[in-house]
Amino acid sequence: MPINPLRSAAATAPLVLLAILGLNPGASAAEQAPAFAQPYVFTDESAAMQVDGPDREVEFRITTIIARGDGPSRHGKTQVRAGRIDLPVLAEGIHRVAIDGGAERRFLGMSPPAALDAAAVRRALPRSGELLLSGKPFTLLSLGDSVTNTGDYEGMLARLLTRAIPGASIRCVDRSYPGRSVDASVREFVNDGPPNHPNLGVIMYGLNDQICNVPLDAYLEQYRWLIQHLASECGADAIVLTPTPHIEIPQDRAAALPDANPPWFPIRTIGYGTALRPLAAELKVPLADGFAAIWGDGGPTFEAASRALWPLFPPGYDRQMESLTETNGNGDTIHPNALGHLRLAQAVFAAIAGVDPIEDLEVEGSSAWDGDGAVTTVRLRNPGGQRLSGKLRAYPAQDAEITQDGDGAYDLAPGAEATITLRWPQARKPEDLLRHPMRRDLSHGNPLISVVDVRGERSRVRAVPAPFTAQARWQRQRLVVTGTSATARLQRAGGVDEITVPLPEGSAVGRIPLLRKVEGAEGSGWAVGELAYARFAEARSGEATIDGDLKEWANRKRWSPLGEPVQARWTRGAEDHRASPDDCSLTWTCLAGPQALDIALRARGTVAADSFTIFLDPRAPDELGSAGRYYWVGGKLAADGRVEVGRGETSKTGDPSGAWRREGDLTTIELRIPYAVMGASAWPAAGDLGLSLHWTHAGTTPPTMLQWFEDGHPWNPRWYGVVRLARDDAPLPFVVRVE
Question: What is the pTM of this model?
Answer without folding.
Answer: 0.94
